[in-house]
Amino acid sequence: MKVASINIARISTPERLQLLLNYCVSNEFDVICLQEVAFSSCPILESLFQVFASPGPNKADTAVIVSKTLKEQSHTCDPDGRLLCINLGPVSFVSLYAPSGRIFRDERSTFFRVIVPAFLSCVKEPIVLMGDFNAVDDRGDRLRKAGTTPSTPVDHALVALVGGLELVDVWKALRPRDSALPLKSVNVVTWWDSVFKPGVKRIAQSYCRRRASLVKEICQFYQNCLVEITDPTTELDWPTFQALREEAREWHLRALTQVAQIYPLDIQEMD
Fold first, then answer.
1. Is 132 labelled a binding residue?
2. Is 134 annotated as a binding residue?
3. What pTM was estimated for this model as a whole?
């Protein structure tokens, strides 16, 4: 069984959700714990996975997606949406998303010291706990370079949670000689080649097709303007021509903004 934990940063667009689905499928994950989830259901993910989302009030909740080949026995979540458990029979998977930021330090401390132990006490063991803790229990976890000061101080509430529940850090247990967790840059090349670049290519191709259609509409619009202005039965009305030309430019900019979702260009750039 292959498992993963991903903070998806509240993604909600079909393109990005499709990238997430492609990534999970290409890596053949069976169980994926998600954090900062902004949806309660997702047809794109549900096409290949079972989706269990925690409907909390923060709009940045947790979810667990499970392969359709696995049978879910039961699932439960806390009212705030920060903890979600899926029991698959022999093992329970818990997705966790702790409060983040310095201003929520007290709330995070209460979360680790009270809420998480209480929640896990109702979960059938053995438990696989994954997620975004927004804290570290070891100085080496956030070292950018050897010999430097960690970017995040040790959270003593998390240390107490790990010790009190006798949690085992699987990464460190399997790699005792590694001094710290891997940096995000380790898999950047793989991510770019296997997931991001194909997704961008699909989006670019879709945009180019729509852009080509738009250009045809623009040409037809200008042609209609010229036919109207140069009608031999009427005299050339320069103010009217300028007004139509300005209207065509504004229409062009509105269409580009809608299609490409870019910041509108300066009208002078359209000359």
1. yes
2. yes
3. 0.63
